[in-house]
Amino acid sequence: MATFLYKLGRLAFRRRHFVALIWVALLTLAGVGAASAPTAGSSSFSIPGTEAQKAFDLLDQRFPGMNADGATARVVFKAPAGEKMADAANKAVVERTVKELDTGSEVTSVTDPFKSRSVSKDGTIAYAQVRYEVSGMELKDASKHALEDAAEGARDSGLTVEIGGDALQAVPHTGSTEIIGIAVAAVVLVITFGSLVSAGLPLLTALVGVGIGVASITALASALDLGTTTSTLAMMIGLAVGIDYALFIVSRYRAELAEGRDREEAAGRATGTAGSAVVFAGLTVVIALVGLAVVNIPMLTKMGVAAAGTVAVAVLIALTMVPALLGYAGAKVRPTGHKARWMGGGRAAAKAPSGGGAAVEKPNMGTRWARFVVRRPVMVLLVAVIGLGAAAIPASSLELGLPDDGSQPTSTTQRRAYDLLSEGFGPGSNGPLMVVVDAKSAGDPKAAVKQVSDEVKDMKGVVTVTPATYNKAGDTAMITVVTDSKPSSVATEDVVHEIRGAGPAIQADSDANVLVTGATAMNIDVSQKLDDALVPYLVLVVGLAFLLLIVVFRSVLVPLKAALGFLLSVMAALGAVVAVFQWGWLADVVGVEETGPIMSMMPIFMVGVVFGLAMDYEVFLVTRMREAYVHGERPGQAVVTGFRHGARVVTAAAVIMMAVFAGFIGSSESMVKMIGFGLAVAVLFDAFVVRMAIVPAVLALLGDKAWWLPKWLDRALPNVDVEGEGLRTHGDAADGTERDGELVRA
Predict the structure, then answer these.
(1) 25, 210 in Cβ contact below 8 A?
(2) Buried-exposed string 216-232: b where 16+ CB fall within 10 A, e elsewhere
């Protein structure tokens, strides 16, 4: 592989005009497609195989035209202080608003609070429920404006009016912190390379890759039912890996220049060596993201595949566009150790001995740290493992759920409506359960439905059970159940399980089938489905990546150590997420206004994404160690050599990735905020504790055994030559040194 990529890098360097034209054309094509594509909203939330989904499908069959999964809005009214909603003036405002809402073209029904008994016991709060024939993100802007205008008209009459539900779903925004993340990345690159041009290359190529990926997703969003979160995830991961991959190739290019090779040869060798690591690092990320398909949640699968496509684009750009831009940059990209004059360039890097010998290279921080770890491997290993173990302790109290309006910022009308409903009707009114009774096979359908209602009323945690609503045939009924706890609580989940647990006995008595659905029950089913899929997913992804790393490192123990280190970092990161988003530690700093259960897809998502990103640093750092070991260095010295060449760049890459992920903490979407925080913390733990401390400590303890591979397996594995050993046959194109961009031959 190294030889092929070497030739590709040289070709891209020579044919830079052609390569640049191709990528500009692809970016333009994707941009035109995105601009001309119809607007798409959130992906449809179909969860195959769950009871909640089966109930929705049954309702569509038995209640045609009901649109059970259509958007809903709850218009909540509160009377001024000292007044009641039943006062003549206030009642007239509510009735006028209900009539106005009922004229909407996409509205299927509107409930009158005074007829549906949706007035609080103290008479100060009431709500009207509006149902639409399409989902929240398919709702036309005209319908949303009509809803907001009706609420505003009621406010003008003196009432407090807020709107809850999913009818006003909006595209999440990330805020200014995303820009700050990119700015931090730029500063880190400038410090790392000591040159604006060298620092600008990774940023430029990463932005081109993300632009192509996100624009392609936008162009295909409507046709493939891709949600807004899909492009956000692709941007988050694509930007981080895009900068990192380009960073490693530019860094290796500068190192090759420092060894005296001409620019084309240096570009080829950088692509052949660092590019090989980029390919395999990218493959691990792609495997982890595409592997999300095993969960069998369409939305999650689409998010994973779209992000994986953006990562693939980042790899291709690093292998082709980066060498091409290096050709354009010429002498402006300086060899390692050379900085621009404004950053101190031109000063002697090291003092020559008084005897007139060669300059002595001063050990960098990576070298000093590696030597310390090699001397004290047991102490470093114990401190790192104990520290990560302590950080992981909060994960033992992990509670899973999906965000609702209660997790929205208090500045939103959805959150204010949620709080008003909780005040007037109890927290459970924000997420009522829908019990569907399929009595088609029952001898007496009404008796079966009454039996269900009576049993549910007596259950602990149930506050209200509404009278049943029958379909035209009279063989299917809907019952609304309100609990005494908020929708995302464990208590509400217990009620759902208890109702479902009573189903078999009811079916045995009356031949009626009981199903529980609604948004709350759907969230519970999603959480359970994700929990059940976690272990199979972990086995699949880690297993495939383990085999891939065996091929890369030609070792059994190194990939095993990489996988175990990953488990430590991901558990510690989950612990940090629980501490902040569930326990409320540092919640004000992160901007968490409401603590609660952790998003149900967070564990499996972090396992996938963090594993892929963790393997990036493993591949980049350890391949340099293996390269030194293969070329004859002792195991301990190979570890030091790997750190001398790679620690600075890996550190810069980790800081950049953390900055990019942390930028998404400013998102208005709680899911994006949690993902950004979790990934930033995971990179912190994995890069600086696992890869920088545990990895060298374990390799120092193992010695030569770290690179052991059974002979039969060695013969069976393909030789991908990540270390670039095959490039030695090509020889050096530059036999001399290079000054000011011109080759001076000996």
Answers:
(1) no
(2) bbbbbbeeebbbbbbbb
Q: How far is CA 724 from CA 273, 716, 727, 733, in A?
A: 5, 20, 5, 16
541-546 long-range contacts, CB within 8 A, separation 24+: 541/287, 541/288, 541/291, 541/607, 541/608, 541/611, 542/566, 542/611, 544/287, 544/291, 545/284, 545/287, 545/288, 545/611, 545/612, 545/615
pTM (2 decimals)?
0.76
CA 34 to chain CA centroid, nearest Å: 22
φ/ψ of residue 488, rounded to 5: -90, 10
The DSSP bridge pattern shows strands 598-599 and 400-401 to be parallel
Positive or negative, the Cα torsion across 547, 553, 555, 558?
Answer: negative
**Alpha carbon distance 621, 369 (integer Å):** 14
Secondary structure (3-state) at 736: strand
Which among 207, 288, 188 is positioned nearest to 682, based on CA atoms? Answer: 288
Say if CB 594 and CB 699 are below 8 A apart: no
Higher pLDDT, 188 or 75: 75
- Summarize the confidence of residues 25-38 as an average pLDDT: 87
DSSP secondary structure, 171-214, as one string: -----THHHHHHHHHHHHHHHHHS-HHHHHHHHHHHHHHHHHHH
Quick: pLDDT tens for 641-663.
989 878 888 888 888 888 878 87
- 3-class SS of residue 86: coil
Gap between the Cα atoms of 309 and 315, Å rounded: 10
Report, in angstroms and rounded to the nearest whole number, the Rg of the chain calculated over CA atoms.
30
Q: What is the C-alpha separation between 381 and 391, in angstroms, rounded?
A: 16
3-state secondary structure 275-301: HHHHHHHHHHHHHHHHHHHHHCCHHHH
Residue 683, token pair as written in the block: 């990179």
Write out the E strands in 313-383: none
> If we measure between CA atoms, which residue out of 24, 28, 132, 20 comes closest to residue 75?
132
**Percent share of the chain, pLDDT over 90:** 33
Identify the bridge partners of residue 131 per DSSP, sorted by sequence position: 72, 109
Q: What is the pLDDT of residue 404?
A: 75
**CA-wise closest residue to 259 among 738, 740, 629, 741:** 738
pLDDT of res. 225:
67
Q: How many residues does the chain have?
A: 746
**CA 652 remoteness from chain centre:** 21
Confidence of residue 77 (pLDDT cuts 50, 70, 90): very high
One-letter identity of residue 567: L
d(CA 171, CA 182): 21
Residue type, 406: G
Contact 640, 366 (CB under 8 A): no
Amino acid letter at 185?
A
Both tokens assigned to 539: 């086995």
Going from the C-alpha of 664 to that of each of 178, 203, 609, 675, 686, the distances in angstroms are 6, 18, 15, 8, 19
Q: What whole-number distance in Å separates Cα of residue 392 and Cα of residue 388?
A: 6
Q: In the predicted model, is pLDDT for residue 352 greater than 70?
A: no
Residues β-bridged to residue 77: 126, 161
Distance CA 686, CA 565 (A): 8
User: Rounded to an integer, what distance in angstroms lies between the CA atom of residue 106 and that of residue 142?
Assistant: 10
Q: Are 219 and 34 in contact (CB under 8 A)?
A: yes
Secondary structure class of 47 (helix, strand, coil): coil
Tens-place pLDDT, residues 374-387: 999 999 999 999 99
CA atoms within 13 A on the CB side of 122: 14
